[in-house]
Amino acid sequence: MKQNILSHIPAEHPWKDLLVFCDRIPSTNDLAKKLAKEGAAEGTVVIAAEQTAGRGRMGRSFHAPAGLGLYFSVILRPERPAEELLHLTCAAAEAACDAVEECSANRPRIKWINDLVMGNKKLGGILTELSVNSKTGLVDWAVIGIGINCCHRLEDFPHELQDIATSLLLSTGKAIQAEHLAGCLIQAFYRLNKTLLTEKDTIMNRYRLDCMTVGREIVLIRGEEKRYGTALQVEDDGGLRVLFDDGTTQTVQSGEVSVRGLYGYI
Ligand code: BTN
Question: Does the beta carbon of 2 sit less than 6 angstroms from any atom of ligand 1?
Fold first, then answer.
């Protein structure tokens, strides 16, 4: 699989020698974080054919069976205060959309903040984790994990995900190989990393075009509490401005936002 991934990247690509491939590990994010702490270079990418303990946002698990999806984590070292990187997950979502579009000719939509969506179902997700150096106050490393379902048929998903999840095969009819997508994603992240701090406005404007949450009825779920409202806009820092049904307006930075009409929320 490693050679196959490398065959989709130009021979002279600066990140080409930084690929770590594993057949089966608990989580590519966990291995990438370990490597980052040990000093691995920016651009180090960890890819696994299978994850046994793939993780998502909000402590959720991410289903990552052998050979069916792309399970990918990249190490970046932006060396800026964390407050300047609030757009990082949005930027990563744009890189993921670019890569999927490049190899499938279909562009996913984004459900705020980190879900890739095709045909109203979840195609994949993004998990961003970072560490700040306590002495300098700057980000030491950021690990961005991306999981994308490639070749799943309906029966490859556990029963409880079958109404919610999709794959590139199911949503486009095309058998896109995870290796091809991996090659596109490495190149998309390399390009993104060059403009991450200098072209924030462009990145966020592109995110706004791809984000399908704005203008939709949503419910914000925090523990037992559910607040209904309408998503108004995505702010420059990635926050979601919401007009709640009680008339108040608030920018949401975290928490689960369900979008009416998506993933079974009627
Ligand atoms: C989510 O849906 O909330 C995010 C899912 C992120 C899954 C990817 S798969 C590669 C990387 N390793 C992990 O353990 N998680 C991310």
Answer: no
